[in-house]
Design goal:
Layout lengths: L8 H9 L5 H19 L2 E4 L19 E5 L27 H8 L3 E6 L33 H8 L5 E6 L5 H7 L2 E4 L20 E6 L2 H8 L19 H5 L8 E4 L11 H16 L3 E4 L6 H27 L10 H12 L2 H24 L2 E5 L15 H13 L2 H6 L2 H10 L6 H6 L3 E8 L5 E8 L4 H11 L15
Parallel strand pairs: 2-3, 2-4, 7-8, 7-9
Antiparallel strand pairs: 1-3, 4-6, 5-6, 5-10, 9-11, 10-11
């Protein structure tokens, strides 16, 4: 009997290719999983099911016949909804495929729908007011992370073997860590962003997938083609990422690690333990591991990241205003989104440019850092998943945001030191992932630990720009270890 959930994407494609199973049967199995599990998890907020007679038979493509879901932001499918988690865009229909989706389709996949995101993908938890919260398959009282939380929950629960995701500050790695799956953020310029965009979040954000296996992620990375609209270009890898993921590392590597938050804030004991036991494992594999922090001012990095955040939300508001033909108001968006947009209007061009220059300074420092260390190892997050609703604003905070917004006091807020407070509060739980976004480096989250309550904890590994191959080599080896979480053990699988 065909057991859909026992196969990763490459495994399903192999069955279809060998005529052991029909493509329609694979799609039907995926739809059954979605219909059974989604009412409780709320991972999929828009469905694109096709009748059997409408299904295209893909005879070529490495993922021919594989069902996937795409993320409800930046991954537009022509003729379908792209609401970005906001009621402001509840009726917005994309008029063309994004370049990522076009290239995804060229691999032979069947897109079955779109996954839930926080409003405009701004949060590390997926709890939009418009579409409702997505729940973690390991425990439905907890978040799957964000902003690719819907995709992570769908993959971890067995709905689909892979799902589209993007990462502007940890949005692939954070949900991968919280859901016990594999998540790789590629090098800036490695994956497509067009045709209407040349960059996303000034190059901080890149698209890829979330997967249960390392080889699926590697195989998909092999499929991306040059995107002429991309403002950035990563040097082409002339070999195969898939082969790299299946090739052991044959020489000892030098690895730096830390369990200290770059903000100087608390790191949960479980997240520290995840790193420390990984360090021991790496040492038994013959690698040289040293405790050392990256030479970066973590608090300035956080402020620089938030500066981009503010400006991007302000720019998003302006773009939406041209679509809806009026000003965006407080009642149109969630309170947190509103305050970010308000601060965006208060950011000067001088501040923004200075912030971008700092990204380059940090990237150069990390290049020199990787002259000595092949990898930089940290917790993926500083805390395990939060409970749903735990990070909501209080009634008082919402009232203050409304008052400040109504009076247009963004500039005063910024001068008061509020930016530092926002940066600290926003990133305290997830302070490790933004570094790779600002430098453009590849980074991955590995499912190597669980809390006493059974919730997954991820371990982040960063490498020099352009060295996804080295990351995938390491991930492929660690995937065979006893520490690697068996995602099939979660209650929804």
């Amino acid at each position: 009997m065909f057991e859909y959930k026992n196969y990763d994407a490459l495994g399903l494609a192999e069955l279809v290719k060998n005529n052991e199973i029909k493509q329609e049967e694979v799609q039907e199995a995926a739809i059954q999983e979605i219909e059974q599990k989604n009412p409780k998890l709320n991972a999929v907020i828009y469905k694109i099911y096709k009748h059997q007679e409408e299904i295209e038979a893909f005879e070529t493509g490495i993922f021919s016949g594989v069902p996937v879901l795409t993320k409800n932001i930046s991954q537009e499918s022509k003729g379908h909804l792209m609401s970005e988690g906001s009621k402001l865009l509840a009726n917005f229909i994309a008029n063309e495929d994004s370049e990522f989706v076009r290239q995804l389709k060229d691999t032979g996949v069947t897109i079955l729908g779109q996954t839930n995101v926080p409003e405009f993908a701004l949060m590390g938890t997926t709890e939009p007011k418009h579409d409702g919260p997505t729940r973690n398959p390991w425990n439905i009282n907890y978040t799957p992370g964000g902003s690719s939380g819907g995709s992570a929950a769908a993959v971890a629960s067995g709905m689909v073997p892979i799902a589209g995701a993007n990462d502007g500050g940890g949005s692939i790695r954070i949900p991968a860590a919280y859901c016990g799956i594999f998540g790789l953020k590629p090098t800036r310029g490695r994956t497509p962003v067009g045709p209407k965009r040349g960059r996303s979040w000034q190059g901080a954000s890149v698209d890829h997938i979330l997967s249960r296996t390392v080889r699926d992620s590697a195989a998909m990375l092999d499929q991306y083609l040059y995107d002429r609209t991309n403002a950035f270009y990563a040097r082409k890898y002339t070999e195969s990422y898939l082969i790299a993921s299946e090739t052991p590392i044959r020489q000892p590597l030098k690895i730096a690690f830390t369990t200290l938050s770059p903000l100087g804030s608390t790191v949960d004991a479980a997240c520290k333990e995840a790193v420390l036991k990984t360090v021991k494992l790496l040492e038994t594999m013959g690698h040289i591991v040293e405790e050392k922090e990256a030479p970066i001012d973590g608090k300035r990095l956080a402020n620089s990241y938030m500066m981009m955040y503010f400006a991007e939300v302000g720019s998003t508001f302006r773009a939406i205003e041209s679509i809806i033909g009026r000003k965006v108001t407080y009642n149109d968006v969630e309170p947190a989104t509103w305050i970010l947009g308000l601060l965006g209007k208060a950011v000067s061009s001088e501040e923004f440019l200075t912030s971008l220059k700092f990204w380059d300074e940090v990237a150069i420092k990390m290049e020199y850092f990787h002259d000595e260390y092949d990898f930089y190892l940290t917790p993926t997050t500083a805390f395990p998943p939060s409970r749903l609703g735990e990070l909501d604003q209080t009634k008082l905070e919402k009232m203050l945001i409304r008052i400040v917004g109504g009076l247009g006091l963004g500039g005063i807020l910024k001068k008061s030191g509020f930016v530092d407070q926002v940066a600290h509060k926003s990133l305290m739980r997830t302070p490790f992932t933004q570094l790779a976004n600002l430098t453009g480096q590849p980074a991955m989250s590995l499912p190597l630990h669980q809390t006493e309550d059974g919730l997954p904890c991820g371990v982040q590994v960063m490498a020099r720009r352009g060295r996804e191959d080295l990351l995938l080599q390491l991930a492929g080896e660690l995937e065979t270890s006893d520490y690697w979480i068996n995602v099939q053990e979660n209650p929804f699988y």
